[in-house]
Specification:
The complex is a heterodimer of chains A (238) and B (82). With 238 residues, chain A is α/β, with parallel strands linked by helices. Chain A has a single domain (4-237), classed as Purple Acid Phosphatase, chain A, domain 2. Chain A is built from 5 helices and 13 strands. Chain B has 82 residues and is α/β, with parallel strands linked by helices. In chain B, strands 1-2-4 form a 3-stranded mixed beta sheet. Chain B has a two-stranded parallel ribbon with strand order 3-5. In chain B, a hairpin with a 2-residue loop joins β1 and β2. Classes of the chains: A alpha/beta (238), B alpha/beta (82). β13 (233-237) of chain A pairs parallel with β6 (79-81) of chain B, so a sheet runs across the interface. The structure holds fe (ii) ion (2 copies).
């Protein structure tokens, strides 16, 4: 095999009453993709009940599923329970960590996690002033640091970074400029650019744009469901 | 009567923070006593409750719910990244 076929989606926002509604769209996914990546905001309110709906919709697929959580999945302080529930259903959940799946004769390495905001180079928050501001910026910084390590230790033929928040501005186009600092951070792109990453997948910006590039030239794809207008997008990396 | 600007902000905040909705991307416009909701959601179950939360937050205003539901289908094409 000379190509790895990646299906990716984010912001599926499943809730009670949506059980059985998403799964039919994944029928036949094994004919089109080797792996499914899910970039966070799996639920609407981040309750374990909703997490169970997600597990139900994504379990026992004929391709491996690797996911991260999004901000919505933290809302009810049940993020740890949601992760456990998804893992019990055979879904690999990255929490500033990585996983490797074999595809044909190739190893696809996926690293990442939720990510966070802060803004983009030249127009971003800094670790200065009130403790609340410092904590906000520090959270992103620590995540980016963990991603650097996860990417560095990742042994694979192809590497993908999976995030909820955006690493670049380009994929936010369509969102109000004023909220960019809450949609992503350049520190996430910097971590990826320091490693040999082939593709970055993210979501979160529902009104954003699908395609972008990091300053180092890595392809970035915003796969928020309203952006791609489909149950998943398909990317083949050679 | 409240300044329209603050009514819109309050409704937008309510749609984001109310546990029945938690919908962050809805645009709210106020013209006189008419309130317009615009944006996209992924399930039709949310449509009515968004209108309801808006109406509760801005009593006395007429709510026009122009939010659309994204239809999800299987993808048509794939992209080859060389
Ligand atoms: Fe989302
Ligand atoms: Fe989000």
């Amino acid at each position: 095999m000379d190509e790895i076929r990646i299906a990716a989606v984010a912001d599926i926002h499943l809730g009670e009453g949506m059980r059985g509604r998403f799964r039919p769209q994944l029928d036949g996914i094994e004919d089109r993709a080797d792996v499914l990546l899910v970039g966070g905001d799996l639920t609407r309110h981040g309750t374990l009940d909703e997490g169970q709906v997600v597990a139900h919709e994504l379990r026992d697929l004929p391709v491996p599923v690797i996911a991260v959580l999004g901000n919505h999945d933290y809302h009810s302080d049940q993020n740890i329970e949601i992760i456990e529930c998804l893992r019990d259903a055979g879904i690999s959940v990255l929490d500033d960590s990585s996983d490797v799946v074999s595809v044909g004769g190739m190893r696809l390495g996926v690293a990442g996690g939720k990510g966070f905001g802060g803004g983009f180079a030249g127009k971003c928050a800094s670790e200065f002033g009130e403790p609340e501001t410092k904590a906000f910026v520090r959270h992103t910084r620590e995540i980016a640091e963990r991603w650097r390590h996860a990417l560095k230790d990742l042994e694979a033929d192809k590497k993908v970074l999976l995030s909820h928040y955006s690493p670049v501005k380009e994929t936010l186009v369509g969102e109000p400029l004023e909220i960019y600092p809450f949609l992503g951070s350049y520190l996430l792109a910097e971590a990826a650019d320091a490693a040999e990453v082939d593709l970055i997948i993210h979501g979160h910006a529902h009104k954003g744009t699908e395609k972008g590039l990091t300053p180092g030239g890595i392809r970035v794809r915003n796969v928020a469901m309203p952006v791609i207008g489909a149950a998943y997008a398909l990317y083949c990396i050679a | 009567m409240d300044t329209p600007h603050y009514v819109a902000a309050r409704v937008q905040q309510a749609l984001a923070e109310d546990d029945r909705t938690n919908e962050l991307g809805i645009q709210v416009y106020v013209r006189g006593n008419q309130l317009f909701l615009r944006g996209q959601v992924t399930g039709d179950a949310q449509l009515d409750v968004l209108g309801q939360v808006a109406a509760e937050t801005a009593p006395g205003m007429t709510v026009h719910n122009e939010i659309t539901v994204v239809e999800v289908t299987k993808p048509e094409t794939e992209e080859h990244l060389g």
